[in-house]
Amino acid sequence: MGRAIRPIVLLTDFGLRDPYVGILKGVILSVHPTAQIVDLTHDVGSQDLASAYVLLRDSYRYFPRGTIFVSVVDPGVGTDRSIIGIQTRDFVFLAPDNGILGFLQHDRQVRRIVRIENAKYFRPTVSSTFHGRDIFAPVAGHLSRGLNLGQLGSAIRSIRSLKLPKATSTPAGVSGEVVAVDRFGNLVTNIPADRLSSPGTVCIRVGRREILGVAGTYADRKAGKTLAYVGSTGFLEIAVNRGDAARKLNVRVGQAVRVRP
Amino acid sequence: MGRAIRPIVLLTDFGLRDPYVGILKGVILSVHPTAQIVDLTHDVGSQDLASAYVLLRDSYRYFPRGTIFVSVVDPGVGTDRSIIGIQTRDFVFLAPDNGILGFLQHDRQVRRIVRIENAKYFRPTVSSTFHGRDIFAPVAGHLSRGLNLGQLGSAIRSIRSLKLPKATSTPAGVSGEVVAVDRFGNLVTNIPADRLSSPGTVCIRVGRREILGVAGTYADRKAGKTLAYVGSTGFLEIAVNRGDAARKLNVRVGQAVRVRP
Amino acid sequence: MGRAIRPIVLLTDFGLRDPYVGILKGVILSVHPTAQIVDLTHDVGSQDLASAYVLLRDSYRYFPRGTIFVSVVDPGVGTDRSIIGIQTRDFVFLAPDNGILGFLQHDRQVRRIVRIENAKYFRPTVSSTFHGRDIFAPVAGHLSRGLNLGQLGSAIRSIRSLKLPKATSTPAGVSGEVVAVDRFGNLVTNIPADRLSSPGTVCIRVGRREILGVAGTYADRKAGKTLAYVGSTGFLEIAVNRGDAARKLNVRVGQAVRVRP
Fold first, then answer.
1. How far apart are CA C190 and CA C209, in angstroms?
2. Which terminus, N or C, of chain B has the lesser number of Cβ atoms within 10 Å?
3. What helix, strand, coil percent values describe chain C, rounded to 5?
């Protein structure tokens, strides 16, 4: 019986204009000719660890069991920062130990954390500026062929995490902020929808705009109207039906959002 | 004997910066681990149904028999708009019933039209804002594994279509317009080349520019010169040899084009 | 025993907004349903032969033996320029004979050069403006299924090459220039690192900036500081640690770079 397929999912800030992503794939296929490789995105802002953190945290659950997530957003490449591998119940994650896997820090599905250091599975020569090519890609290739994470280095007990702004609840309501703006201009906040006690009647303030009530979907408001709704990952979002909320409200990442009962 | 491979071709307006396309692929692979997934493009203008219509109409014939086309340009997500599946002699198409599959409306190769409503093949929870992830992706995964379209819902008889501007012929010539501008700045019109009776001697007017005769290829004119030619999909196009016609002629989608004998 | 997989690597200036790349893949899969297709990049500047040359030269070694590289940057499409195939010890390369494969001109691993002319392996109708779809894609599909390059046309003895600027050495030092600027704003030069006799003490001048010594990696300088280092392909590069050198130094492709002992 065949072994399960272990797809490799790539998340980088390399962009698609340069050959770096293609080279990663070449190295992976050199190690594992039938590897299945999926791009999550390569357009994370250059060295933007916070975006990579949020993006991976909100995406990984949609992939099949066995998937290997390779996150190369790595401003510290060539320093003594470690590269870590985390085995959870269902997945493996590879990344520099720079905080972007911090969403797993207290996750009870974590089974093992390893410092990646077994050069046997690296490219023969490791540059000081492109560990994606020389370490991450060949290691991912070996893992997707079935290598056990434990073969790659010694166990460690803790990892770094980014400190991302968290929503805070008081009797007067919930305060959070915009943590992402997507291609459509929709504003993703860090306010979990399950914090809102009576969604139908809350008042949401973002910049100078006040929005009454949480809608079910875009089309619950007329075209051009601003609305709040529960986004597809469970956080409060703000959009303009058939429009661009970021542009209309002149809002960027970091803008405060307040919800009053 | 193995069943034929049924590739899944994705066409969306999601862009590649956000994780949405990666998530679609994760869901597809969760249903069908060896699915073959191809990106047609994800850079259709946000909610630009007309571009998606033209783009898919002019591309689908180049894919292998059995291909499943998944078009998620869906400004009406969460409303009561239907999701439809169309089986033709060679292909399957999935899309919201918002007109982007209208080029199939009178196609004699259509074998069956179905309203997609069998939630057994959806993700367990369906959000109101991301049917790409919750309906289109898992349904495409099941179809690529061999599920029959008829299992997905009840047959319907008609679909919506966009009204795209059509070229009109009069004794004085053919009138059309620019329907797309590609990366090279080439202007794609809606004037079928076979409407031109004597291509060598026609006069083509776009904006203030007059072009004499239809050329065979770019290099039939000197570098920097404007030319008309029959594009690779059979419509009249206008280009500048080794240059950018949209910029040189200051032309956008919608610009009138007139051909006189 | 199964035959080796022969991945197809695509390098074009088509961009990802138009359907052209997707169509190439459709045609390849029509010929070879299980072909493995990898994008090197499709964002080479429109008709920018020099960038395609450098990019492919510095990338191809990272792919598995048997890989077929298809380079469609083709401003001469439809003219009498040839399409060539080059078999090296480990790879096959397809491209217009416009110089972008010139880095193979004197390579001793070249085994065979062929003018691609056997229309049996083309699409039935060949347009004059889209040979990527009508010739390159089906030919690559057949090669990846195991077709021998010799079946595609007659042997030829020489190919064209671009004249790219080369670094020159004098007793006073090495003179070169910036040949690429990547997404991070790193400046890639054409100065091979092995030309520098005492890397630790050289003085590198780019524009008005002088940089002392070649660093090991970005983090050998403080954040915001400019540094020179040996890039991952063996050439001298200039960067700003956690910053954008192209922007900080206001430098573009073509800028002179001088190294003095």
1. 18
2. N
3. 25, 30, 45
- A126 to chain C, any CB pair closer than 8 A? The answer is no
Which residues of chain C lie closer than 8 angstroms to A13, CB-CB? 183
pLDDT at C195: 87
| Helix, strand, or coil (residue A60) | helix
Closest C-alpha among A226, A223, A224 to residue A237: A226
A223 Cβ under 8 Å from any chain C Cβ: no
Contact check, Cβ <8 Å, B217/C79: yes
Of A58, A64, A219, the CB nearest to B33: A64
Residue written as token pair 């369906």: B126
Considering CB atoms only, which of A15, A18, A26 is closest to C63?
A26
Q: Tell me: the pLDDT tens digits for C36-95?
A: 999 999 999 888 999 999 999 999 999 999 999 999 999 888 888 999 999 999 999 999
Interatomic CA distance for residues B53 and B49, integer angstroms: 6
- CA distances to B95, B108, B116, B132, C104 from B155, in Å: 15, 17, 9, 22, 58
User: Which segments of A66-172 are extended strands (E)?
Assistant: 68-72, 83-88, 92-96, 110-115, 168-170
Helix count and strand count (H, E) for chain C: 5, 15
Q: What is the dihedral of CA B104, B106, B107, B109, to 10 degrees?
A: 110
**Residues whose CB is less than 8 angstroms from the CB of residue C235 and which lie 6 or more positions away in sequence, other chains included:** C188, C189, C190, C191, C192, C193
Strand, helix or coil for residue A117: coil
**Which residue reads 């329907």 in tokens?**
B179
pLDDT, greater one: A38 or B1: A38
> How does pLDDT run across C34-45, given as a tens digit for each residue?
999 999 999 998
CB-count exposure of residue C234 (10 Å: 0-12, 13-18, 19+): exposed
In 3D space, the residue among A240, A91, A78 whose CA is nearest the CA of residue C229 turns out to be: A78
Interface touch A19/C36, C-beta < 8 Å: no
Q: CB within 8 A of C27, min separation 6: which ones? A: B62, C123, C133, C137, C138, C141
For residues C232 and A130, is the Cβ–Cβ distance under 8 A? yes
pLDDT above 60 (res A1): no
The partner residue sitting opposite A77, judged by closest CB among C5, C217, C237, is C217
Backbone angles phi, psi at B100, to 5 degrees: -75, -10
Helix or strand holding residue A246 (H, E): helix A245-249
Phi, psi dihedrals of residue C143, rounded to the nearest 5°? -60, -40
Give the residue from B5, B8, B18, B27 with the most A CB atoms within 10 Å of its CB, the best one to mutate: B18
Sign of the torsion formed by the C-alpha atoms of A154, A155, A156 and A162: positive
Average pLDDT over residues B75-87: 92
B76, B16 in Cβ contact below 8 A? no
ipTM at complex level: 0.94
Range A118-127 average pLDDT: 96
Chain B residues within an 8 Å CB radius of A229: 128-129
Question: What span, in angstroms and rounded, lies between the C-alpha atoms of C8 and C36?
Answer: 6
Consecutive H or E run containing A203: strand A203-206
Alpha helices, H only, chain B: 20-31, 49-57, 131, 137-144, 245-249
